[in-house]
Amino acid sequence: MHNTRRALLKSGNALSAASSTAAVASAATASSPSARLVSRRGAVASIPSVRSFSLSSSASPVLSSPRNTPSSSSSLLKSRRHNFSSSARLRALTAAQEALKAAQEAAANLTAENAAANMTPAEIKRLASVRNIGIAAHIDSGKTTVTERVLFYTGRIKAIHEVRGRDSVGAKMDSMELERERGITIQSAATFCDWRKKNDITGEDETFHVNLIDTPGHIDFTIEVERALRVLDGAVMILCAVSGVQSQTTTVDRQMKRYNVPRLSFVNKMDRMGANPWKAVEGINNKLKIAAAAIQIPIGTEKDFEGVVDLINMRSIRNTGARGLTLKTSDEIPEELVELAKEKRQELIEKLADVDDEMAEMFLEEQEPTPAQIKAAIRRATIGLKFTPVLMGTALGDKAIQPMLDAVCDFLPNPGEVQNLALDRAQDEKEVQLVPYNSMPFVGLAFKLEENPFGQLTYIRVYQGTLKKGTHLYNSRSGKKVRIPRIVRMHSNEMEDVAEVGAGEICAVFGVECASGDTFTDGQLPYTMTSMFVPDAVMSLSIKPKRTSDADAFSKAMNRFQREDPTFRLHVDDESEETIISGMGELHLEIYVERLRREYKVDCEVGQPRVSYRETISRRADFDYLFKRQSGGPGDFARVVGYIEPNADDPEANYFEQRVMGGMIPDKFLSACGKGFEISCAKGPQLGHRVIGTTMILLDGATHVTDSSDHAFSLATQMAFKQTFKDAGGVVLEPLMRTTISAPNEFQGNILMLINKRGTVVDTEIGVEDFTLIADCSLNSMFGFSTDLRAATQGKGEFSMEFSHYSPAAPHMQKELMAKHQKEVEAKWKK
């Protein structure tokens, strides 16, 4: 270990990236020469540190001084305010006003360091108390149950209700009837609450305002997680104490990394048989490749789980009273856990020393860090995306949720500690940093749309400036000016009207027609923000209303669903003239069909699910195609010469390039050739599915003085592509789904038989009583799998799946699919 630390210390640049805080000003003892901000695009960005107030009220000091004794920023603020003479206050406010004025004239004038240096104490205090977090995890890990306890312990709700509507009420965040019936979260739901905690250093009470979004765990509703993480500053990743890291945990991890979201990890269900928190910690380190260490150990396990030992302060924490409302803390650790607590605390310090230079220096000098220094290191490393602290408890058992809330406030960033970037269209879309200051020009992002009895409800994250009722905003995409007639804060399906919302907050507005991902400004800044990642659909089915009288309601519902959910798509098939809906899976489409029936009273006829195949080529093939047609008047003439080949650089993308010399094809027709290639790729020649991974190179051609046209060259390119595709070794690709199956060990043989018919086993993990099998299975073979699994495991098995990649279908399947497609085409022409 010591050799590793020395190597890290010698590499000062590498360690400084993890050591300094992600705050605009340091949140802890700061000997590093730079402060850190979590960048919402790209790596963590560095800015010069400033001697100013901390944006962090829960950790320690802000003034850069080597080996400063930790103290709370709240006490620092008190000290600063106490010594703030009226003339000094006036100078500070004047400086802030001048900086803001310069920024309004040219936004680039307000750098992050200027913003930090000129913020008023009131603005610092406001931002320091805000947390925007999400709850995300694998399905059935207990996300909604955890959220229900968070709302109860913060006083947001007066009674706890469980998922599946067991008490005829259901969890607060599952407001949709379908969610309560099925016991799953379908739509993300937003709420807000206030959490009061004691500052460990000063002993003073602190109040934090938490905006919270509960997200679905099922892969079919992954867009809800995408758009939540796009606008949040931090997250709590929940893991099952029995299963550890699961398939959807990996997906959530990938999404958090995509948007650079710092996270805590909470191991839930510690009271279940087979609970093993160390399995979860190991999985985070080895499978998710994130440095992780427990900051708690359990007092008892399974049915004997009582509480946790806090490894930072070395004290025991237990819940007492009705629903665990009261926390009982004690400096006495159960005797049988003392050695384990010391061991795990040392592991925590060593793990922090690997990612934080201050902790590494203390480790090398064999200094024992104080609790405040450990907390400061955890905060720096967490916000710097280098580390995740692991907590544990049981939400259903009402144990150890309050310490998790404390950790959210202690270790996750406030809005001033996250670098959110916009693109300045006046400077060729140069990246500019947004500053969460209320007096700045307004910039916000619409991240979720929802139909409401009062109209369209648009969820907005305010990144900069203040959003006020009655003001006008501009949609950066459409250029339209809109008025904001009503602003609300959401508490699941309940609304609370507010007059204005400040920078760093989340709200919802009525009366704004827009698309998910649109940027809004007050017109002063030509900014736009990047939207969220939207995955491709993997499954389709035909649908039509049973009664023709329901056509209008059907159309209205389809339009609404497409606006609300970017992964739900609709088109009319050119050949069959059927309405086709596409989505992320069988459950995804099933839910929308059921919502049609319940919310719009439209019963539908639904076809068999269709897999979204892809087509590609496997080798190069040349073409020389002449398109010539005479019809009495001006005819059509176009000749194209070139070749198609696999796109080795990107198997998912298509590429067109013209290398025509000597003007054999005029420029005005070359663009038509490119368009013809795009049309060909949109509907492949083998199945009519999208073509991927194909390159077309145009080398030569010929024209006619009167008969050549854009239309002729577009058609010539399409016909050349179609004829050459077979010679290029056309291949049908099918989607493979990463499938995770869990069941009691006695059913291993049965499940292996099921999987061998459908795909390839990737990994197997055998536990004491249960086992988990991971396989890549053909989506086409997975229809009805849930029924087969229930039969093979006596109802004790469960599975989940997500899209993995496209792979060539079996040769016999390719022939069957192409023959079926050919029959459908012939049947259409006969009609």
Question: Explain this structure to me?
Answer:
It is found in: Mitochondrion. One of its GO terms (cellular component) is mitochondrion. Residues 128-416 form the Tr-type G domain. Belongs to the TRAFAC class translation factor GTPase superfamily. Classic translation factor GTPase family. EF-G/EF-2 subfamily. The chain folds into 6 domains: 2-126, no CATH class; 129-416, P-loop containing nucleotide triphosphate hydrolases (Rossmann fold); 420-528, Elongation Factor Tu (Ef-tu), domain 3 (Beta Barrel), CATH 2.40.30; 539-612, Elongation Factor G (Translational Gtpase), domain 3 (Alpha-Beta Plaits); 618-729, 2-Layer Sandwich (Ribosomal Protein S5, domain 2), CATH 3.30.230; 732-813, Alpha-Beta Plaits. The chain is built from 22 helices and 41 strands. Mean pLDDT is 84; it is low at 1-36 and 41-93. It is α+β, with helices and mostly antiparallel strands and 831 residues long. Strand 34 and strand 35 (636-646) form a beta hairpin. It is globular and about 100 Å long. The strands form 9 sheets. It has an 8-stranded antiparallel beta sheet with strand order 21-20-26-17-18-25-22-23. Helix 1 packs across helix 13, helix 4 packs antiparallel against helix 5 (112-118) and helix 12 packs across helix 13 (357-364). Helix content is 32%, strand content 29%.
